[in-house]
Write a structure and sequence with these properties.
alpha/beta; eight-stranded parallel sheet
């Protein structure tokens, strides 16, 4: 489960439903470039019964790296140090993205949903296309420069860098090009990296939003997927609306069963869920109760698989 860097009600709820592996972003509370600070973060989780299994998201401002701006070499040195510290502490997986300018994005986060819950949607109709600020190939060049700098450090540290697809998977967002919007782009990434430490964060709903066959991709990339995000989307004009995990058009149980059939020893986390009664909507998709519900849903699927 994705948890904040310091204990709050989400830590308590996660522990109470039997979660042991934490996914987190520890910056800025802890200093990623100081081994003692990262060790203190790890110990805080361990004291609560968790192990940090994945660092997820931009752990510091990566704008200069992604946009190819002056100062990126300094930032790449920081990134290398972060990877080395992860290796020293035994944190095995880094989930990262290469969304320049804008990260994951929804055009509305106030959509009424089942029983009065609040959910999010993406629609191209809400966000008109804009002229590109720079080209897609320029972003590919920036990505290649990034990989060349950091992959050797990941290999040395024994950390697998798992790329998350662009969300939403559109070719342009508010003028910024987006490149990881298709399965072919991920194949290009794997060829470019050519490393056992280059992996994939398989956000199944995002690949489906591309129009890809996510089940076929799981089979194709079974040796490169080290981290899985599961949620569901309901198609709407121009895009999609996020649903509860039990209430979308996709059979998520089939996806979980396939991971098991392929003997994939990967961490699975519930992705975005609607905001429920009694919660504020300050972090759309990441309020606690909908994700706790998803964990129970996943546990039920796993238990039924074991018993049959």
């Amino acid at each position: 489960m994705f948890l904040p860097p310091v204990s709050d009600h989400r830590w308590k709820l996660a522990a109470q439903v039997g979660i042991h592996n934490a996914v987190c972003r520890i910056n800025p509370v802890y200093d990623l470039f100081d081994l003692k600070s990262m060790s203190a973060a790890q110990q805080g989780f361990r004291d609560a019964g968790f192990e940090i299994a994945v660092l997820e998201g931009d752990q510091f401002d990566m704008s200069r790296i992604k946009l190819g701006l002056p100062g990126r070499d300094e930032d790449l040195e920081k990134y290398q140090m972060m990877l080395r510290n992860m290796g020293r502490l035994g944190i095995p997986v880094l989930c990262y993205n290469f969304m320049a300018g804008i990260g994951w994005f929804r055009s509305r986060t106030d959509i009424p949903y089942r029983g009065g819950a609040i959910t999010s949607r993406w629609s191209r109709d809400d966000v008109p296309e804009e002229p590109l600020k720079f080209s897609h190939e320029k972003l590919w060049d920036n990505y290649a420069y990034f990989l060349k700098a950091v992959l050797p450090a990941a290999e040395e540290a024994g950390v697998v860098m798992c790329l998350h697809p662009d969300d939403p998977p559109v070719p342009e967002l508010k003028g910024y090009p987006r490149i990881f919007t298709s399965a072919s782009a991920f194949r290009r990434m794997l060829d470019l990296a050519n490393s056992p430490n280059a992996g994939i964060t398989f956000c199944a709903a995002t690949f489906r939003a591309m129009g890809e066959d996510d089940m076929a991709l799981i089979r194709e990339w079974k040796d490169k997927i080290h981290f899985v995000h599961l949620r569901d989307n309901q198609p709407v004009p121009g895009g999609f609306m996020e649903t509860f995990h039990d209430n979308g058009p996709t059979n998520l149980a089939e996806r979980i069963k396939l991971l098991s059939e392929l003997k994939m020893d990967v961490l699975l986390r519930p992705d975005h869920a609607p905001t429920m009664f009694g919660e504020n909507n300050d972090e759309p998709g990441y309020a606690a109760l909908g994700r706790i519900f998803a964990i129970g849903y996943f546990k039920g699927i796993l238990d039924s698989m074991e018993k049959t």
